[in-house]
């Protein structure tokens, strides 16, 4: 029956690939992006509310800027403001970006078990590559996809379907690891088994995900049967 959760046996070794989100999943960096958004939009006389900032965690800048300014911006203006936000984030990311505890070890364990590893993020490519270097994952991350380079980003499934296409795989071959609702919804809409890991991920908003945990360390103790809609 559509919409009803059913039991899903989650064994990561049954998959050919794992696709990881970046910000909030592998690295703490959302606070840097928040700072950059506030600093840059203040130059235009705008002050994003706490609710608006929270609503766009894990998402690209296009819809955030349109909602903040109360109208669809021209592509040129959106690009100009987005470039400024990215440049502002550049000033802080190397100093303030931190690894998510145990995330790298979990990812490396999957790679050592033979799974292909990809990163699917809303961040600009240079920030994705910088985080991969910081985490010393260049040798295991096969490819990365930036939602900033696509017509639409998360929660649209396009970033994940693009990642699957680049891997030459279909949805049943891979699973996604996310920490935000927009990202989890994007992965789920792409047909991927979705693992939600992070503060709040065991709450009711994430009940559509197949496996949920507050931290990666909890996944080692997760029951073999996860509940979710698939």
UniProtKB/TrEMBL annotation:
Cofactor list: Mg(2+)
EC category name: hydrolase
Classification via InterPro entries: Beta-PGM-like (IPR051600), HAD-like_sf (IPR036412), HAD-SF_hydro_IA (IPR006439), HAD_sf (IPR023214), PGP-like_dom2 (IPR023198)
E.C. number: 3.1.3.68
GO MF entry, a single one: metal ion binding
Keywords assigned: Carbohydrate metabolism, Hydrolase, Magnesium, Metal-binding
Pfam family, one: Hydrolase
Superkingdom: Bacteria
PANTHER family named in the record: 6-PHOSPHOGLUCONATE PHOSPHATASE (PTHR46193), HEXITOL PHOSPHATASE B (PTHR46193:SF18)
Family: Belongs to the HAD-like hydrolase superfamily. CbbY/CbbZ/Gph/YieH family.
Name the UniProt record assigns to this protein: 2-deoxyglucose-6-phosphate phosphatase
């Amino acid at each position: 029956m559509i919409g009803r959760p059913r039991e899903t046996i989650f064994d990561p070794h049954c998959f050919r690939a794992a696709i990881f989100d970046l910000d909030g999943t592998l690295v703490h960096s959302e606070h840097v992006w928040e700072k950059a958004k506030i600093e840059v939009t203040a130059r235009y006389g705008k002050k994003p509310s706490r609710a608006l900032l929270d609503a766009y965690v894990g998402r690209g800048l296009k819809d955030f800027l349109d909602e903040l300014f109360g109208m669809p911006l021209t592509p040129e203006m959106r690009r100009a403001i987005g470039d400024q936000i990215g440049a502002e984030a550049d000033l802080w990311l190397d100093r303030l970006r931190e690894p998510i505890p145990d995330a790298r070890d979990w990812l490396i364990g999957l790679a050592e078990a033979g799974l292909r590893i990809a990163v699917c993020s809303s961040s600009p490519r240079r920030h994705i590559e910088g985080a991969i270097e910081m985490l010393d994952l260049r040798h295991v991350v096969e490819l990365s996809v930036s939602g900033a380079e696509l017509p639409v980003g998360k929660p649209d499934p396009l970033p994940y379907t693009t990642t699957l296409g680049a891997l030459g795989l279909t949805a049943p071959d891979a699973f996604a690891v996310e920490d935000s609702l927009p990202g989890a919804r994007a992965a789920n809409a792409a047909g991927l088994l979705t693992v939600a890991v992070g503060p709040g991920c065991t709450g009711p908003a994430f009940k559509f995900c197949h496996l949920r945990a507050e931290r990666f360390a909890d996944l080692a103790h997760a029951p073999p049967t996860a509940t979710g809609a698939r």
